[in-house]
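tool_call predict_complex ligand=flavin-adenine dinucleotide
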Amino acid sequence: MTRQVHEPPFPDGRLARDTDPSVDPGHRFDVIVIGAGVVGCAVARRLALAGAEVLVVEKAADILDGASKGNSAILHTGFDAPPGSLEQSCIAEGYAEFLDIHERLNLPLVRSGALVVAWTPEQEARLDGIVEQAHRNDVEDVVRISIEEAGNREPGLGPGALGAVSVPGESLVDPWSTPFAYLLQAMAHGTRVLRGCVVENGSFDGGCWTLQTNQGELTTTHVVNCAGLYGDLVHRALSGDEAEFHIHPRKGQFVVYDKSACALSSSILLPVPTETTKGIVVCPTVFGNLLVGPTAEDQESRDDASVEADTLAMLKREGERILPALAGHAVTAIYAGLRPATERKEYRVLEDAARNYLCLGGIRSTGLSAALGLANIAARWLTDGGSAFVPPRAIDWPAAPAISEHGERDWMRAGNDGMVCHCELVTRREVLAALDGPLPARSLAGLKRRTRVTMGRCQGFYCSAELADLAADRFEEPLARAPEEATG
Amino acid sequence: MTDPVSDCDVAVIGGGPSGLALATALRRMGVARVVVLERESEAGGIPRHCGHPPFGMREFGRVLTGPRYAERLVTAAVDAGVTIRSRTTVTAISPGPLLQLATPEGTERLSPRRVVLATGVRETPRSARLVSGDRALGVLTTGALQSTVYLKSRAPCRRPVILGSELVAFSALLTCRHAGIQPVAMVESEPRPVAWRAATALPRLMGVPFCAGSTVTRIHGNGRVTAVTLRDAAGVEKTLTCDGVVFSGRFTAEATLARMGHLETDPGTGGPRVDSLGRCSDPDYFAVGNVVHPADTAGRCWREGNALASTLVRSLAGELPTADSAVPLEVAGDIIRYVYPQRLPLARPPSPEAGIRIRFARAARGRLVVRRGNESVLERRARVLPERQMQWRLPASILSSADEPLVFHFEPE
Ligand SMILES: Cc1cc2nc3c(=O)[nH]c(=O)nc-3n(C[C@H](O)[C@H](O)[C@H](O)COP(=O)(O)OP(=O)(O)OC[C@H]3O[C@@H](n4cnc5c(N)ncnc54)[C@H](O)[C@@H]3O)c2cc1C
Ligand SMILES: Cc1cc2nc3c(=O)[nH]c(=O)nc-3n(C[C@H](O)[C@H](O)[C@H](O)COP(=O)(O)OP(=O)(O)OC[C@H]3O[C@@H](n4cnc5c(N)ncnc54)[C@H](O)[C@@H]3O)c2cc1C
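tool_result ok
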């Protein structure tokens, strides 16, 4: 498939007004970032703020469609990361920078804190080690607390807990607005985004990269591979390097409880982690829900984020064991995410200075927290490589739409044009902004992530007709068709 | 919040058949300021998007389609002097009573003397039923199908599978026929249709296979739905090509206001727990229509709304008996879905027998037993079917203690 870059991604022209502005075929970018997951978005932001001219290419119809679409939305302190690892330092840096910038980007942060709860004597025996590891990672405020104190903090905790560790810094973030805001800020500083654009191959001539994509050839000086679940394949295509690493996707399923359940726990309730997984977490969200998950299931497919009834039922049981009162509450949503795990636990950060190539691969299960730290690695790599960029004189801080339960929502303000989604209280003005604003939503999934429409308890019972109307002709896969089309 | 507070006599939350009937009757009985708060752009409730008959026989003496019926209800209310505030969402309730409202112009507060929840029902979506498979586009409920077809003249799919066989599943079939959508199958996990025995005639007429005793075990499709896996009564699985899945029925109360607010809710209905006068645990709040008993017909809800008006008039006049001493009714086991009302007045002779309704979750034959503590105080033999209701008049003799609940339990044979 070789199509000219300036053609709209959808050939029938129907969506022309929603396509991303085309790119001049001959134009040479400073950096092309492959993949608009949370890592790619953070990298684009950081490099744009360093003064580079950046193009982000994303193969899906919309951003955040890979590993970044389904996670637990916890901003980790890195208390349990392997001491001295790259992962640990990226999380620490990412955490600190998020605290510094989130208000300016209008991003929610809920300092819920976490309790690591031990339910067996073996787990209890490991609690002191967890505290010690946290201190080695400079997360100083992590302490053992008595089971009475844990019970006072979380009266809903089920029977049988033997001990706990308090991790005050673990926090809740919005998993979609966060990377979206990073990308919006990059765009405010000249970054371009091309969605529906798949990088298939590339070659480096000693000074300049040519990338082959389904939208034609793109030219750039530097390439950063942030292709997540496809990071190894992109790496192979660009470096010819077969053996460096392999992605072994690891699925995590979740059940999400209705807002009435959110009051049952104010903290994140973590189990004692094992070698392979942080285990099943009970976790409030910034949207006022409570989620239980994820599982850790190795699989071949890089796309199959399907859910399994038995597993979901197991998650409900596990949730109800940890918080018995959950039994009286309804599940409103189910989902799964895929971690880009590799054969090793550590991130795969591979620099090829001679070829102006950086791979940020295998960002397995902490990428939401570590993304800003990884972006710093990219910035250091770019400037250490001798490139001199002129940072913008003044920094723009575009405000992300406020869609969490913390802070003023659009429905509270005049001129919101009425409610569309009654469960998540999403207004018509918010939906239209997401359809017409910068980087407009290209799929229902993209619209959901930007606004939360249909993500509540009724799952579209009340609002999907209205949405089908508002989003008519906007999406590659329409929500509904006109009758003559439908019967055709 | 520091929004201004306005007041009125009665605020009805929800402008469906029950809420509109109640508001209209209240005005006709002379209550001065009656406000219906409706979050949709127009009042009328679910019938607004039920483009098929039969509606309105009891109310207007003729057969109407849902939208016509909804219009007539709205006209009657407006003519009676009811204030209908559409595009007005009640976002929270609290004692007082005090309501938080959201409108296109922002937030405000309302402090009525009495509040009635008439917020209706919704269907249980795929997520809450924990169905395996991909999370593809084209998975919807009858409500979503109907409103897309009848309110927006669009079709969300061309060849869906319809799950369930409660009455509403047949509405889904009619909706499909109206939009030129050809369902590929109707799937029911029970061995026979839930609505009524002869209900398979309609799908047969439309050339839609009725698969009883079957379940959809998996949804396939990356992007849009492409197929489902169907398991039949013998456990044999096959793949059915389709582009949508309509989850119909399994109604649950649209009662988030009650759950997030201060009202006691019932695990069976999902709605507020009410006494035989329709009073919630806060006696300034009442509930009526399908939010109390998911789900019955519009006609039934309309009649209830009408009937509740005189109770409210007495409540406003301070003439209702206090709500303090009542016998709580509860349910054990999984054969009974719910019992309502959930509180009956203590019997003070010569109080009459107290009527209740019981709805069942599945088919069974055996004994319906009422217990107080470990003691069985009443029982009867019964054969029950899913979704069917049983009316029962309890003798006043068992309504003697407000301290211990009466627990309803079904013992199958
Ligand atoms: C179940 C689960 C729970 C998690 N919980 C947390 C948590 O609580 N906190 C936390 O910090 N982290 C968490 N994570 C981890 C976090 O979600 C990931 O680390 C992060 O999303 C990885 O982002 P990424 O940008 O590397 O990958 P991705 O999100 O996969 O982004 C890569 C992008 O590249 C695109 N792409 C791929 N190939 C090409 C190509 N050839 N051309 C163009 N584009 C391409 C893809 O479409 C994709 O959009 C969790 C992950 C999972 C799965
Ligand atoms: C898909 C579907 C199809 C049906 N088909 C039929 C049929 O063919 N025939 C039949 O007799 N019955 C049918 N029913 C049953 C239906 O519930 C009743 O007909 C009837 O509508 C119930 O009336 P109601 O007043 O209890 O509630 P509803 O008609 O549901 O009205 C409730 C109203 O409250 C509003 N509301 C809810 N919460 C708020 C809030 N917080 N703030 C403001 N407003 C709020 C809603 O927008 C809605 O308009 C169907 C139900 C469904 C779900």
